Every structure is written in structure tokens, then in C-alpha cells.
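Listing S7. Sequence submitted for prediction.
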Amino acid sequence: MKRYLLVSVLLAGMTIGPVVSAEPELQAGFSMETVNPPEGVFLAGYEYNRKCTGVHDDLFAKAALFFDGKEAVALVVIDAISIQYDTAKAIREAAARQTTGIPLTPERVIVQATHTHCAPDTIGIYGADEIHCGRDDAYMARLVETAAGQVASAAKALRPARLAYAETECKGWVDNDSEPDILDSSVTILLVNDAEGKPLATLTHFACHPTVLESETLAGSDWVGYFYKAMGSRPGIHLFLQGAIGCWIQPKTPERSYSLAQRYGENLAAKVLEAVKHPAPITGSAIRFANAVVRVPVENPKFQLMSALGLVSRPFTETVETEVAWFSVGPAQFATHFGETAPEYGFQTKERMKSKPKFVLGLGLDHLGYICPERYFGDSKIPHANYLTSMSPGPKAGPAMMEALQRIIP
């Protein structure tokens, strides 16, 4: 008895070492709602005066919210051609106001567009003609309200979650029409399951314009809509995260048909559904976040003209304000690009991120047109360079974006 007492006394006096706090428990919530336009709203992406005559497939605002017990971050994905920075800020502020009980500040709401060309003109440059604004204020107000509301709904749906990821490739129907040898065919999927292992959501990252369709007047999300439908065989909410699609990542279009869009969307879904059969587990759940406001030089007089004509709802002067953001959920990392960025910027951003999985959110928080490398400007012989640079702020936009990302990605 004395021997056991002595051992107990000795143990009581020992310093075992620092207590390591357990990894915080991750919670995740998801929500979605349609953002279909009324008839008569101008559609964006191609010729002027293209008015909506109905809805072919639903447009969605989908939200994912992650909370580790201390930090929170939300991702909102909208079937839209573009979410301009002022619209993104309106969504962020409204979402933060509505999300009570969760420490979610406006800057931690990340908004991304899928870039369908069969959605309303959310920029303002696709109206009746080149000098009249095509943005519908009533639709924009409803879009902001609905998108913000999905973040609040996702907060109410929070539950303990476990993460895993999968990777694959999707080839054969996507080209770089400018520089064929520069193409990112990778597909990265984040799987979010509940504590029992039942699927809550998938987040699929891939880079390709949703532009199979061209002159349709029915609203829809092009091949992304068919991707969502095909993913419906797996439970949960499915979010498509657009990648770096500038300079010029396009689907092959031997025809402009719904059947071709269906084939492409179902092909990507088949790749994803096969890949998620063999997921890699993710260890870690802590949320980290960083962002930086950027003043991007504007050297394209067309941008200033859009401001002067009142086509866009933000000022373009010698510079324009925008933002980049980075966040991680455990080892899963996400970084935004503020436009349609060249694939090489996607590769550079992924190289900067040191853990997997990696997601480059093209058209994230803003859409400043094409963000092209310097070789596209001037007397370039690269196919489509003249068009791409005519819709770009200028050659300094890409370096400004990458410098800011390098500062915030640890």
C-alpha cells in the first residue's frame, strides 16, 4: 500500500508537459435557392438586346458555411455571368447582418459566379445596344437578398462535419483556344459528410466556360445545369466552383445545342462520381482567412467609357478597387481571382498553396474581364488576343493580382 501511495505522490508532482488543445470540431451548413429572372430581363454574354423569354433550367445561389467553433467562412456560388465587386460587397454585408450567432464578418463571405452566358446582365453592358445599360435593378436587389439569405440558411443548417477530397481529370471537350498547350484539365472535389458519414455536399472545381449555348433566350446555366442534374444521384447539395478560364478556356462547340451541353455536363459528373468512390481523408479543421484590397491599374479606355455612359455601377478611373481573398478549412485551400484569368495564373496560385486540396475561384469577388499575361498585349500573334485584351483592364492587372495573392497566402 505504501508503494502505491508513493507512486501516486510522485506522479502528482510531475510536470507532464504542455497540454495540447484538441483540433476544433468542424461544423458545416449548406443552402440553395433559385435566382431565376422574369421574362424581359436582358441576358448577358453575347449580342445586345437578347431578352429572357423563359427559363430552361434553374439558376441557383448556393451557399456553404464552415465554422470551427471560433472562426467562420462562407462561400456563395451564383449561376451568373458575373458578380461585380459592388454587388459582392452588398451580398457580403447583407449575409453578415442576417447570420446571427456565428462570427461571420462581411469580408469572410466569398462570392463567385459560374459565368453562364444564359443568365441576366449583372454587369450592365448587354442592354438594348452598346450605350444603354442592361442591368435590371429589381432583379439585382432580389439576387442580393436571395444570395445573402442562403448564408443565413446555411448557418441554421450547421452540423458536425467531416471532410475528404478526390482528384481526377476531365479531358476531350475543353480547349485553350489561344494557347492549346496551356490547359488545366484537373478536377478537384471537396466532400463534406456528416458525423455518420452521410454526404452533405460536394464542391467540384474545374475550369471551362459554360458557353456551349450562344443565342438562346431561355435562362439557364449551360452545361453546369446538366452537371448538377447528373450529380443528383449522390445525396447533398452540389456546388460548381469555376476555375481560371481566361485566354481562352472554352468547350468544343461543333454545334450549339442543349444535347451537347448535356453530354458535357454529364461527362464531368461521371468523372466526379467515379472519383469520389476513393476519397482521401482530410485531417484538420481549423479555419484561416486573409484578404487584401487591391487598386488595379486601368489602361483600357473602354472601361472608363463604360463608367461615363453609366453602363456599370462602379467608377473606373486610372485605377479600380477590387479584392483578393484566401481561406483554408483544415488543409483545403481556396484563393480568389478577380476575373477570367489565364491558366498560368491558376497554376501559379496553386503552386503558392502548399497543401491539398487546392481551389482557384475564378470570377471570385469580382469580374474585371480578362486578366491576360503581358504577351497578349501589343502586336500579339496569339489567337483571339485582340479581343481578349480589348476586354481587359490592361497588362498590369495580372501582376497586381498575383502580388496581392503572394502577400496573403501563407
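Caption to Listing S7: primary sequence and predicted C-alpha cells for the chain studied. Residues 287-336+369-408 form one domain. The longest strand covers residues 159-169.
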